[in-house]
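Dataset card, provenance and construction

Sequences and ligand SMILES were collected as paired inputs. For each pair, a complete structure of the chain with the small molecule in place was predicted and serialized as structure tokens. The example below shows a pair involving adenosine-5'-triphosphate. Curators did not alter the output after generation; any descriptive sentences attached to a record were derived from the structure itself.
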Amino acid sequence: MKEVIQLDQISKKYGHFSLCELTFGIKEGYITGLIGPNGAGKTTLIKMMMGMVFPDHGSVKIFDQEMSIHEAENKDRIGYVSDENYFYDQLTIDQMSKIIAPFYSRWDQETYRKYIEMFKLSPRKKIKELSKGMKMKYSLAIALSHGADLLIMDEPTAGLDPIFRRELLDLLSEHIQDEKKSILFSTHNTTDLDRIADYIVFVNEGHLVFNEMKESLANKYMLVKGNKELLDRDVRKWFIGLRETEVGFEGLLNNRSEGEHFFRDHAICETPTLEEIMYFTVKGNALYV
Ligand SMILES: Nc1ncnc2c1ncn2[C@@H]1O[C@H](COP(=O)(O)OP(=O)(O)OP(=O)(O)O)[C@@H](O)[C@H]1O
């Protein structure tokens, strides 16, 4: 399957934090969610994809082209949304857009107008007068108005009210109907992922935990709830993360078929939610791939 983004052996060190030889790809034609706890490295990875941060080692390819060499032509095809404000505060929405438009060879003023209207943004309002959610909407309108083949978005749903959040997710699902278009977005909200993501990339402490199809996680992971008597030293080691109370335990396994075989008759075996997979992995000193 074709990949629209390829990171190969990426390393980056910031003091005590490091991205450690990360290698993964983002599939063309799909929506991929990038998840991980605070400080896991999501924004750093996204900035690397946008050529805004350089890796110490390794290569970043977008559309099969090395980002460091083909930055301008790649960016022409990427719609980027970030939670940082890159606009000029003193300008109005329309004045700002007139500055941005010439940077994109496929800028479509009609589409831009459509989104500004749909997102209920007033073209004469100054950027500094926009609320956090309005700035995000403005950023989204720009990203969707220049025929981008790839949307890269850093927490695009943060700060959005639940109604617009849902509308945006529907809009992104529609956008992907064109099989040549791809979306990568980071989020802390697993409901976003449940609604629209096809693939999930999970990073923790600068390591890749997994890059998997969302549907296949249910075949891999299992949540076991049972009596503490089931736990001895060897059994404990099977769990990625374990939460124990006085009498019982809850633990996550990443080998469902073996786990079912062992625990089926003695404990409750469930399919974990994404949030549970994240919680137990982050809490439990998981082994990284
Ligand atoms: N320019 C920088 N200089 C020094 N350290 C940095 C810089 N940018 C990021 N870091 C560090 O890199 C680590 C990863 O940060 P990053 O912003 O990528 O995490 P994140 O997964 O996006 O977190 P969050 O969910 O909180 O937004 C953090 O420890 C952060 O302090």
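Derived descriptions for this record:
Residues 162-175 form the longest helix (14 residues).
The chain is about 30% helix and 30% strand.
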